[in-house]
């Protein structure tokens, strides 16, 4: 797809990446292409291999096979050089409940040997500001809502300027308000040019937050591209409501389409719905209407139905998705 040709290159690139647990492949030969500056939604049902992939990308687990490049550098060979450029939220950092949000971030920053102590206070303040927690900087973390804790985890990832942010299911377990806050925040993270790689099992969430999507199913990457590319790859069906079903079918066939058998009948018994999949490039709905009219078909109704992204994903993964959340 176009991802590989995107300006700025790829922030994450894998080639035939695999990871097994015993005989079982949790990640099965995936080729990720995450363009720089994108918000890439790593979408898949529970157990499809998202967390395992993320752990391997971040050097928290070893791959069995395959090549990985993060920010253009080979992993895990160049891990030490790459990690300071990458902010991550995986399984959430452990916070001290009786310390404030700001004090927790300062402690976590102390553990980062690349972080400058001289600028710590300023950086902690800026990170809290960025995630909308400046007002709660002095509040003890046990009084934070789940959404606030999750945003504090993201603030931790933002303590230094990052080229890449990797977030594993950041809205998991949050109430609707917390979910909205985190989604809004994720969208804002690319300001300044960073790339965001975010996993989710919720299609609606990925549609709201992301520019690109990769779909996982049972360890395999079954689709990848921009949201629009995936929408366009779905099927489109035209339906004609007409009393001249036989002629309509012949006109559709004349355009190289394969008309389906007339379905049911319209308001009047003499009408039938003739349909066809739009499977030929260059045959657009307007071409079809013009041909029907020119062929003497009395067109009483005409509709174009595109399969939804949800239908597309269900057909790709063979299973239902949680679509709301
Ligand atoms: N440490 C492990 N040992 C054995 N099997 C594992 C281990 N970690 C993950 N798996 C298995 O690998 C598969 C992929 O799991 P993974 O956690 O990567 O999926 P996921 O898409 O992130 O799902 P979830 O959202 O539920 O975490 C699952 O079948 C899981 O049971």
UniProtKB/TrEMBL annotation:
Q: Name one GO molecular function term.
A: ATP hydrolysis activity
Membrane-spanning regions, if any?
none
Keyword terms, alphabetized: ATP-binding, Nucleotide-binding, Transport
Q: Which residues form the ABC transporter domain?
A: 12-243
**Protein family per UniProt:** Belongs to the ABC transporter superfamily.
Which Pfam families does its entry note? ABC_tran
List the signal peptide residues. none
Question: Where on the tree of life does the source sit, at the highest rank?
Answer: Bacteria
What is this protein identified as? ABC transporter ATP-binding protein
Is the Repeat keyword given for this protein?
Answer: no
The UniProt entry, under PANTHER family, shows: ABC TRANSPORTER, ATP-BINDING PROTEIN (PTHR43335:SF4)
């Amino acid at each position: 797809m176009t991802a590989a040709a995107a300006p700025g290159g790829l922030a994450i690139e894998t080639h035939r990446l695999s990871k097994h647990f015993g005989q079982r492949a949790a990640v099965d030969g995936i080729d990720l292409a995450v363009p720089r500056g994108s918000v890439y939604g790593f979408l898949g049902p529970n157990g499809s291999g998202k967390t395992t992939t993320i752990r391997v990308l971040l050097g928290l687990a070893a791959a069995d096979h395959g090549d990985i490049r993060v920010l253009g550098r080979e992993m895990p060979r160049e891990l030490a050089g790459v990690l300071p450029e990458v902010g991550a939220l995986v399984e959430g950092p452990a916070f001290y409940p009786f310390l404030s949000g700001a004090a927790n971030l300062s402690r976590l920053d102390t553990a980062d040997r690349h972080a400058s102590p001289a600028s710590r206070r300023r950086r902690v303040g800026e990170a809290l500001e960025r995630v909308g927690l400046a007002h709660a900087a002095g509040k003890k973390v046990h009084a934070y809502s789940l959404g606030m804790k999750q945003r504090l985890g993201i603030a931790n990832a933002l303590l230094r300027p990052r080229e890449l942010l990797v977030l594993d299911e950041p809205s998991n377990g949050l109430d609707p308000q917390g979910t909205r806050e985190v989604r809004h925040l994720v969208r804002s993270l690319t300001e300044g040019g960073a790339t965001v790689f975010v996993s989710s099992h919720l299609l609606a969430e990925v549609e709201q937050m992301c520019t690109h999507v990769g779909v996982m199913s049972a360890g395999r990457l079954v689709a990848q591209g921009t949201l629009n590319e995936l929408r366009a790859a779905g099927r489109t069906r035209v339906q004609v409501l007409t009393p001249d079903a036989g002629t309509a079918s012949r006109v559709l066939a004349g355009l190289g389409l394969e008309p389906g058998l007339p379905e049911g009948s319209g308001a009047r018994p003499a009408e039938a719905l003739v349909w066809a999949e739009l499977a030929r490039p260059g045959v657009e709905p307007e071409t079809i209407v013009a041909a029907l009219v020119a062929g003497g078909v009395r067109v009483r109704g005409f509709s174009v139905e595109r399969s939804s992204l949800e239908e597309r994903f269900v057909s790709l993964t063979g299973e239902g998705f949680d679509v709301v959340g």
